[in-house]
Hints:
Elements: E1 3-7, H1 11-23, E2 27-31, H2 34-43, E3 48-52, H3 62-70, E4 77-81, H4 86-94, E5 99-102, H5 107-127, H6 145-157, E6 164-167, H7 174-183, E7 192-196, H8 202-210, E8 211-213, E9 218-220, H9 222-225, E10 230-234, H10 241-253, E11 255-256, E12 265-266, E13 270-275, H11 279-285, H12 290-296, E14 299-302, H13 313-327, H14 336-342, H15 351-365, H16 391-409, H17 414-421, H18 425-435
Parallel strand pairs: 1-2, 1-3, 3-4, 4-5, 6-13, 6-14, 7-10, 10-13
Antiparallel strand pairs: 8-9, 11-12
Helix pairs in contact: 13-15, 17-18
Amino acid sequence: MKNILVIDDEIDICNNIKAILADEGFNIQIAHNSDDAFKCINNNTYNLIILDVWLDNSKYDGLEILKQIRENETVPIIIISGHGNIDMAVSAIKDGANEFIEKPFNTERLLLSVNRSIELHEVKYENRILKEGNIFDYKFIGISPSITKIKQQIIKIAPTLSRVMIYGESGTGKDIIAKEIHKNSINKNGPFIILNAALMDPDNLESELFGIQDNNSNKVGHLEKAENGTLFIDEVGEMPLQTQAKILRVLTDKNFTKRGGNELIKLNCRIVCSTTKNLEQLINEGSFRKDLFHRLNVVTIKLPTLIERSNDIDLLIDYFTEIFSKENNQKNTDLKPIIKTKYINYDWPGNIRELRNVIERYSILGEKYDDNNETEKLEDFQNKNVISLPLRNARKLFEKNYLQSQINRFDGNISKTAAFIGMERSALHRKLKQLGITEEDKQ
Length: 443
């Protein structure tokens, strides 16, 4: 029997979830605050945790509980909230949640998420070989003009020690580019160390970077770990100004000291950074140092979105299908017809990461994977006015009418519209621009 922990301060919600899941054969335990939750987690083993974001009379909210669980546990976690938005969902997924469900949810939606999360977790962790914290050492796949140009850039810059700044939306593969640079550099036999500034507590960031030296400990920081190798600072735009000043000093002096220590340690690694943000805009806003920007932004690589390199999608589907088929000891089936049919005219707002996750789910669950909540269904689009139109024009008309209707439904609120239809806000803005929907149309 599978054990599930429900953490929610609302008794009625807990009882409702318990009744639904108990009927399906799950053993349910309930906690109403963070203290009770950690007691349960310390004394029991769970196959899944369902966690509410807002918890009254609790020391920690759901997102902080999520972070603390992820420090030691790999148990799948479904985040639920009655006050959800796209930013909260993105934050929860970045912090390690498997899925995000907005209240109120129906029985089918809950059961789908529960069964999918548990099954995916069991298969992945039975078969996956962990390699230095990275689940797979993915290859840089693509033959589109933009990707070919980036491959040529890598060939030129990798053998040097020049600092590189990689720009790209979330999920475009910035870490893969950083690894490609390292694997083809003169430091290729050295370590490749990753520091994600967005996921780290700002108070601990400097300790992680520089290390700690005092009477009680001598902790090695990321800069020292990366000696004769590469330090990849992901989401460098999230770095606090105080830490930026110290990084600038390190780059200028080419040495550093541990926190609390006096010994000078020579900087002997290549630094590669990435960001989803516009650093020049952050400079204008006063949240990123201009002098540090020029130190780090020596060579620039800009990654396209997946939809901008759509002719690579077939290659990526084949590549990830082969990986997950081998991993799960399954037949390597051609998923292109299934995915391209169900995701026709889809913009892939989550880019390669989203495509990879979809392929992994289909590789494991096959047709049991119901993606009705993630793609648009065009089968019911019956409008006599578009019968005579070419397919491409009919789709465009449908999308324009659909998006205008949803925007009107949410009184012109783009964030709420994006959250409801399952797109990132930036992707929705792009789609509106493509369809020629103006500010007047949004009213």
